[in-house]
Write a structure and sequence with these properties.
Helix content is 9%, strand content 33%. It has one helix spanning 236-259; strands at residues 5-13, 27-31, 40-41, 53-62, 64-68, 79-84, 103-105, 144-161, 175-179, 188-189, 202-217, 228-233. The longest helix has 24 residues, at 236-259. Bound molecules: calcium ion (CA).
Length: 260
């Protein structure tokens, strides 16, 4: 639409000579992300046995309207109309910006490995491109890295970008925490640790925890390198869930410990 609009309803005009069912289940989205699949879904999908004119309630703001079939099939639209509204909900931000927020780490190898390289907005995993962190050789305690978000945030997910030129396995078993204790090791653990047998290039960890600090800690001594850390906010439901999640996580960990 070339600028942000508050879209009340989207009207789809379906093919009438045949094949009307191909539009069944289609997802209409409105938002400003050019990766349209990331934009918010309207209030309903195209129903079964759609007619020739389908109205979908949206009340969403954004620059783009997209229509997507949730399966491989022909997508035909004879016309798309949008009615404007004044009652749009503000879309939730898709990321908690960590760029430029204060960071720290247990030790720093050299000038190329500063802790703020994990929040410089660059996910490049080649260490010598200078956008990754790197702790020094030290046998004092487990290595850690932390960012101060400067206010309480509900963190739905933490995304870790691992080093790719070598040494990806150093991140195995890493523990991600979110909380407001400046002794980061006291904050609640996210729902799982980085896989203990293989660490991927990009690792998503579900958290659904609130707090001012995100920290990443290795469970034993090794070099800790992070090429970027991103945080995705909780969705509304996650926020309500976070207390229960804390308890469930604790139970899960207790059970895992019993099994070991
Ligand atoms: Ca970086």
């Amino acid at each position: 639409m070339q600028k942000d609009e508050c879209v009340g309803k989207v009207v789809l005009y379906n093919r009438a000579d045949c094949c009307a069912n191909r539009l069944e289940g289609a997802i209409v989205r409105v938002g400003s992300n050019t990766e349209y699949g990331q934009n918010a879904e309207c209030q309903s999908r195209v129903p079964a046995s759609p007619g020739s004119r389908i109205e979908i309630e949206c009340n969403l703001s954004g620059q783009y309207i997209s229509v997507e079939l949730p399966r491989p099939d022909f997508l035909t639209l004879c016309e798309v109309e949008a009615t404007m509204s004044t009652s749009c909900k503000k879309p939730a931000p898709s990321e908690i910006s960590l760029i430029g927020k204060p960071t720290s780490q247990s030790s720093t190898l050299d000038a190329m490995s500063n802790s703020d390289h994990a929040v410089d907005g660059n996910t490049n995993g080649y260490y010598f491109r200078g956008s990754c962190t790197h702790t020094a050789r030290s046998n004092v305690g487990n290595p850690w890295w932390a960012v101060d978000m400067q206010k309480d945030e509900c963190v739905g997910k933490v995304v870790l970008y691992n080093r790719v030129d070598c040494c990806a396995d150093r991140l195995r078993g890493a523990i991600v925490r979110v909380g407001s204790n400046t002794e980061y090791g006291q904050n609640a653990e996210c729902q799982r640790r980085v896989n203990a047998s293989k660490a991927a290039k990009r690792i998503e960890i579900e958290c659904n925890l609130s707090g001012q600090y995100i920290s990443v800690e290795l469970p034993k001594w090794n070099f800790l390198t992070l090429c970027e850390v991103k945080a995705i906010p909780c969705s509304g439901n996650d926020k309500r869930m976070s207390e229960e999640t804390l308890l469930l996580n604790w139970l899960k960990r207790e059970l895992e410990t019993d099994n070991e």
